[in-house]
Description:
Elements: E1 4-7, E2 10-12, E3 18-24, E4 32-39, E5 46-51, E6 58-60, E7 68-73, E8 78-83, E9 92-100, H1 105-110, E10 118-119, E11 123-127
Parallel strand pairs: 2-11
Antiparallel strand pairs: 1-3, 3-8, 4-5, 4-9, 5-6, 7-8, 9-10, 9-11
Amino acid sequence: QTPLVESGGGLVQPGGSLRLSCAGSGFIFGYYGIAWFRQAPGKEREGISCIAGVEGTTYYTNSVKGRFTISRDNAKNTAYLQMNNLKPEDTGVYYCAAALEPLHVPTMCTYERFEFQYRGQGTPVTVSS
């Protein structure tokens, strides 16, 4: 059983929207912070948005503030990334990762060596006309 599974990616035109889902299984989802990362071709992994397990503290990288919204439903063991007004530069493989709390949410998103206990396989997002 795969601990984290992403879904919701696809091809969308600039200005369009997608909602990504990150479904967890086999662990107590609410005890873990969730991070969404983006891996674009030829670029470093980028932390897009992160959310705490229970408290709900969130973090967004500057390029997505005001366009993306992270949320979670611990009863459904699922985290979401609502992406609006998508741009071509948002193209990449999006994957989620889980880290056991307590943790510092911004650090989870920005520290390249942050250790995660679980990571999904990713879902591709292409923004193109």
